[in-house]
Amino acid sequence: MIRKYKFCMLIMLSLGLFSCSDQWAEHNDAQGNLNNNLVQLIRSDADLSTFAGLLEQSGLEKQLASGSYTVWAPTNDALQNLPQSITGDEKALRLFVGNHIGYQERLSYQAEEEPLRVKMINGKVSVMTETSITSVDETANFSAADQLTKNGILYKVDNYMTPKKNIWEIVQEQSGNPVSELIQSMFVVTDSATMETINYFQQDVADLSNEDSTYTFFMLNEDAYSTFKMEMEPYFKDTMPDDFMSRALKLGLAKDLVATTSYYENVPDTVLSVDSVKVAFHPENVVEKINGSNGVVYVLNQFDFKWSDKIPEIKIEGEYYDAISGSSDPVNVRVKSWASNERDLLVINHSTPSYHITYNVPQAHSTKYKIYWLANNDNYWPRNNWQSIAIDSVSNLPYGNKMVEFNNLEEVFIGEHEVQNYGQLKLILKAEATSNNDWNTLVLDYLRLVPVFE
Question: Which residues form a coiled coil (predicted)?
């Protein structure tokens, strides 16, 4: 029995040594490539001769001969059906070859636990796993991996990966689409001498040309866009002629067409836009899907969104005021556990008739709002005090004085106000027109404006 055990151990040890020998042989072979750079190793491999020719033709050989890179080189078989639109166009070929070369050295084991995002030298981003690399919707599997060279790592792969346009390029190409026309209309001249322009959608909403970010972008066909625009126009009224489309309306339409996650597949039934509006996604409304290098475009024939997100209520914390009418000495921001934001505002012992606090709302929609306040007299004065809300001017007091009750933590309805034009709304908290400190105290936890959808 002991002899049998020793014999088995001897066999296992021999197998282990043989296995280790193989591994060290492979390691030594790889180490031998450290005498060559990436270009030299690619040229020496007969199975990569087609890619070597494309590399030379693209003009990227010199760059790849120095620096630190990883190359995922398609084999000759993989490149058999490469279209002439790539090989016959200098710019397209350079982008194509660059889509197989990544910055820095990437070994397969680094992607063992989770995929790696790899920046390619053409500016695109690919995703590497332990056994493959994917560029958007094209995957190349490794037939040979982790070949070390003097200036990087070489992989041989079984497929080529065609670089895609980014979302910004796709939107610009869809010139007949109304959303594309909307985005194009947002170019403005920033320097009259040089005629330099910027697109304020790119600045204020999302830079869809950024290859390091990911997006889902919704484009609408004519009917869907017309309906959406018609629904939004009443909430973005201004003083300009009807045929003029304001910057606010353009941004109001465009902001909810962008999400900062690329849903190439398995789109959730609700997508959150960059403006935090919940957009409903129904697969049956998709007219066309276009995959891009930094996301995906869906052309829709209907656009559904949550109205209370799109035209949201406005909450103004009392302590965040914009102006006061007199000395700041009587103005107190109090710490109160019961208050919203655990703060409220108390103005007391100011001896100033009609002392008032101004709050500017920068982006009020042109619609009717119900106005509420929460104001609590928590025994700061041994009597009920009175105060009022003025609109735009301290003399415009449409709701009269309201009593602030003792220890009342319930909202009080103040009244309704219809905003005529989109933009700034001025709300003024006004004290009694008396210098008697028994009556002219002001207190406010918050104001809340709730849009009325009729």
Answer: none
